[in-house]
Amino acid sequence: MNKLGTKAETLQKLYQELKHAEVLPQYTFTVGEWETNSEQIEKAFLLLDWNKEVIVRSSSLAEDTSSNSQAGKYESIANVSGVEEFRKAVETVIGSYDDDRKANQVLVQPMLAGVSICGVAFTLDPNTMGNYYVINYDDKGSTSAITSGNGTSNKLYYKFKEENRGQILAQERDGQALNSAHPTSVFDDSSVSISASEKQIERLCLVLQELEDFFEQNNLDVEFAFTETNELYILQVRALCIQGEPADRGQQEQQLQRIRETIRQAQKKKPFLCGEKALYSVMTDWNPAEMIGIRPKPLAMSLYREIITDSVWAYQRDNYGYRNLRSFPLMVDFDGLPYIDVRVSFNSFVPAGLEEELSDKLVNYYLDRLAENPAKHDKAEFDIVFSCYTFDMLQRIQILKDYGFSEEEVNKIIDALRDVTNNIIDHKNGLWRKDYGKIQTLNKRYEEIMSSDFSKIEKVYWLLEDCKRYGTLPFAGLARAAFIAVQMLQSLVTCGILTNNDYESFMSGVNSVSSDMNHDYAELSQKAFLKKYGHLRPGTYDITSLRYDEAPELYFEWNSKSVGNVADLSAKENAEYEGETVEGEHKEKEDFRLSLQQLGLLKKQLRENGLTNDILELMDFIKTVIEGREYGKFAFTRNLSMALKLIGEIGQEHGISKEDCAFLHIRDIYELYTSTGDVRTSFLHSIQRGKSDYEVTQSITLPPMIISSEDVLRFYYPDSEPNYITSQRTSGKVCVLETGNAAEDLQDRIILIPSADPGYDWIFSHQIKGFITMFGGANSHMAIRAGELSIPAVVGVGAKNFERYRSAQMLEIDAGGKLVRVLK
Fold it and tell me: What is the predicted pLDDT for the residue at 168?
């Protein structure tokens, strides 16, 4: 049996042993040998055939062990030429060792020239224990972009491992050659077209299987490089340090194949739906990734479905004049991972009055455009879909003519969207007025429920039923109206009637829960403030997320009276429900006024576009529904938050923690309302099933946008997606580290650093809660170290998110749920 050793020993074992990859030659000596006979080593170096330009690498006994990789801790010096540079490089490497063991080694190898692709591959997902090859690489020729975390062209590829074994055995049996000049793709779908780099990565997967077999170990961390001549080199192999046992591969394969088959069967025309194919996304509509996370616990998932995505969402769209999608769930569940059925979503944006044949053509256009541009899955209603009439509609919609729509068809779509929009914005009879009134009813009924002698189970039932009828249903209407309002306002900027400053002035004049909270925080006593806002919690659907009134000191600095980013959270989440982007810093409010010229232009636009509101009615609509959307969420979350609190109390009364209650399914609680079942028994059975299901959920990784059934087994993670390390959850105060700047006290802080550079390795000695980097990949040194030490981390959040997080005082990292929440 071949065993992993030091870096040098492992590479020596692999030298000329691999069938489908190369290992560079090496010259290795120990620290003790260098100290006693450095001149002889230098002479031997000069005699090497490949000594023109070398890399001097660390090979310490303390690194690359089964329990601790020490990735990036010790020095390696590249581009070394001549004996003087060689001597200096050796001394630098030895000087970086933090022990005096004479058996520590120094590894010398030729510099690899003409590198085209370089990266790091894991033969197991260390965060989920899933059986995937996780390959993080840079295709710009850098040999350190991935390990240093500084790469700007990082790609992250996932491939379920079981696919490879049969392919390798078949090729070995048939004598197929996997040489450098003619790489073989393991894609079994001839319709899938892959680039040269993708073919190389597929070939790498075969080598990873070869390495697993060679060392009889399925948790390997492998550094690799492809050259411009298409040669594959293995630069390092070590044990991948993991916390826990790998997921059962056979069970995982069954689950993935079931998901794959479900998606494959969906790729056909369905009764009562427009569109020839199905797409799935975590962000396209009602944004489950933002609201409940990628891997929500069963209670959060079932609540989100119950009060929004199973039926409420479709009733609202139907009521507002769009196609009737009642009885179509918007969100599907792929073994616990929530996805929006994009075909269903796109159907719901088609005006009900549009003829069927044209509706079908329009939905197919939407689906095709999103499939071509999957990065737009979180911006589809902005960049792809036409869901309402705006002042720039006549210009924007002309793109349809480039995709086979006739002038007559375009005009029919315009007319249908205008009719829907006029009905929604109608100042006297628009449904948004009734929806606003329903929110008032919700507040009254809340007090009645809470003051009644209902049992806690009954209160949970009625709080949630009212939440749907008088909360999320009208909120969905107000959110839809607010989306249209913002679109219309932004189109006035596009048309040149308003300036960007005008737009910002208008929005800053909107009264919101956020602005009210800031005012009340300054004016009210702590008791009065928490009575009004205490039901809010950062994780709206998460029973383990503490309410403001459960942990006021966690969220607020009562001495300094600074509510900070907590106030921003409500507005941001409200916008995310309907896909609106909320950006920018707080600015001083400016009064919004229209000049006489602007009034004249707007009046003309209203008339020429056939919109029925006058100027005052339109502006009142825009302001009222934007305010109403936020108020609607504030109100319905009170019912939801209290229901969660009561569920936790019921659990505690029966010896069940809130953490365990997170694994309940809400329908099992509903069942207790209509039966005489034993509460403890029902809770425990539901929790047991929820935990069993969630164990499966944790091991599965899928892309944020699923276009084909093949995406279930192999896919690229988009550049915009951060890398979450571990499956743990933590919260703490924020500490921002700039390059070369050391903080005085990092203990119990969440650290923000620019990149996943190993130079920040020192932070791990300060008992930090977690860290977030602007740049970096899943296989960077810092990501590896975080996984080894079980420190929650988010690597590569991008500049925009990084700036948002650095302005916060307190953050929560939910790595398992793939969420970062601003707590303060």
Answer: 43
Find the mean pLDDT for residues 584-594.
60
Count CB neighbours of 154 within 10 A: 25
pLDDT in tens, 549-588: 998 887 777 776 544 434 344 444 444 444 443 333 334 4
Could you tell me how far CA 650 lies from the centroid of its own chain? 33
DSSP string covering 219-248: -EEEEEEEETT--EEEEEEEE---SSPPPP
- Residue 343's H or E segment, with its range, is helix 342-347
* Residues 6 or more apart whose Cβ sits within 8 Å of residue 744: none
SS3 call for 820? strand
3 state SS of 31: helix
Q: What is the dihedral of CA 197, 199, 204, 205, to 10 degrees?
A: 130
Encoding tokens for residue 655? 């010896």
Q: Which residue has the higher pLDDT, 515 or 172?
A: 515
220 φ, ψ (degrees, to nearest 5): -115, 150
| Side chain identity, residue 29 | F
Handedness of CA 706, 710, 713, 719 (dihedral sign): negative
Residue 165 has pLDDT above 80, yes or no: no
Token representation of residue 370: 């999103």
What are the tens digits of pLDDT across the range 351-369? 999 999 999 999 999 999 9
Please tell me the predicted confidence (pLDDT) of residue 147.
57
Instruction: Quote the tokens at residue 639.
Output: 């019912």
pLDDT at 717: 82
Question: CB–CB of 767/748 below 8 Å?
Answer: yes
Half-sphere exposure of 749 (CA within 13 A, CB side): 19
User: Could you tell me the two tokens for 743?
Assistant: 């903080």
Q: Residues 6 or more apart from 361 whose CB is under 8 A from it?
A: 404, 405, 409
The closest alpha carbon to 30, from 58, 63, 1, belongs to 58
Tens of pLDDT, residue by residue over 453-485, are 999 999 999 999 999 999 999 999 999 999 999
pTM check: above 0.85: no
What is the DSSP pairing of strand 132-138 with strand 115-122?
antiparallel
Closest CA to 10 of 109, 135, 126, 119: 109
Q: How does DSSP classify residue 776? A: -
| Per-residue pLDDT at 492 | 96
Residues constituting the chain: 824
- Residue 142 vs residues 151, 154, 224, 248, 419: alpha-carbon distances, Å: 8, 10, 12, 36, 56
> CA-CA distance, 327 to 400, in Å (whole number)?
30
Q: What residues pair up with 224 in beta bridges, in sequence order?
A: 119, 234
Task: Output the six-digit token pair for 292.
Answer: 């409940």
Contact residues for 405 (Cβ-Cβ < 8 A; gap 6+):
361, 365, 413
DSSP 8-class letter at 468: I
Nearest CA among 393, 390, 451 for reference residue 422: 390
119 in Cβ contact with 142 (< 8 Å): no
Which residues contact residue 257 at a Cβ distance below 8 angstroms, ignoring those fewer than 6 apart? none
Q: 414 with 745: CB under 8 angstroms?
A: no
Name which of 400-414, 531-545, 781-795 the model is least confident about. Answer: 781-795
Per-residue pLDDT at 738:
64
Instruction: Show Cβ contacts of residue 140 under 8 Å, excluding neighbours closer than 6 positions.
Output: 151, 152, 153
Percent of residues, the chain, with pLDDT higher than 90 = 65
Q: What H or E segment, with its residue span, contains residue 484? A: helix 473-494
- pLDDT value at position 586? 38
d(CA 86, CA 735): 40
* Cα atoms in the Cβ-side hemisphere of radius 13 Å centred on 772: 34
DSSP one-letter string for 564-613:
TTHHHHHHHHHHHHTT----------------HHHHHHHHHHHHHTT---
Q: What per-residue confidence (pLDDT) applies to 778?
A: 62
> Catalytic amino acids?
781
CB contact at 8 A, 125 and 112? no
pLDDT at res. 595 = 94
Higher-confidence position of 224 and 291: 224
Q: Which residue from 215, 218, 222 is spatially nearest to 238, judged by alpha carbons?
A: 222
